[in-house]
Amino acid sequence: MRIAIVAPSCPLKREAAERVQALAAEHGATLAVHPQSFLEDGHFAGSDAERLAAIREVLADPAVDAVWLARGGYGSNRIAEAAARDLPEAARSKLVLGYSDGGFVLAALHKAGVPVAHGPMVQDVLRDGGEAAVRRALSWLVKRDAAAVEPGVDGPAFAFNLVVLSSLMGTPLEPDFDGAELLIEEVDEEIYRIDRFLFHVSSQPGFARLRQLRLGRCALRDNDRPFGADLEAVVRSWCERSGVPFGGHADIGHDVLNKVVPFPCRNA
Length: 268
Hints:
Shape: globular
Number of domains: 2
Structural class: alpha/beta
Largest sheet: 6 strands, mixed
Distance between the termini: 25 Å
CATH topology of the largest domain: Rossmann fold
Number of strands: 10
């Protein structure tokens, strides 16, 4: 299996690429790290044009079986719509894996009929215990290992970082949530910001069509004063206001335990 790595947001560290190359070989996969992944243009892994060209190149390459997003950060929203526009048929036979800021690309490609999944990225190997996350991702990419999938998924499902989800709601990238469950996670935000993001997300008409919402792990900053409610209570409150059932907790997050969540298949 040939897996291409691109960085639609921030640059990939070479150490991460080298470590994951070795792990991929153990799983019977060959990694092709696009040179763009190491570019630096201010905050980004190359200019918008360079990042866009790289992801469209690997999506169009018939020799590539899967596309693995290198890391998160910020920037994929700037190219996501263009990346999914007028795709060649070869793109629709590939699986694209990532999470965090990569959620913009996942949402855009999913709407274009490309199979996508939320799951660990290449640079996660540099986290403490990150090898396990990368092996989970490779098991899913190479053999669709059911053990890599978030265990509570029992139907159509989407998974997003909450900031990314809030940013794409109400835009052309917003998914069709009809009858699906939504899994959310977050990192490095205060609980009042979580409340604000959920206000926006749950206010969108499409949110009300969800089957349920589940809460993944959220690594929070301390509020400058007590908020008055814990995280689950905040999530439950917005679910109640919008009429969407709260389905409990989910095994996803910005950590090495992050599980894979395949988005529902659809035709463009």
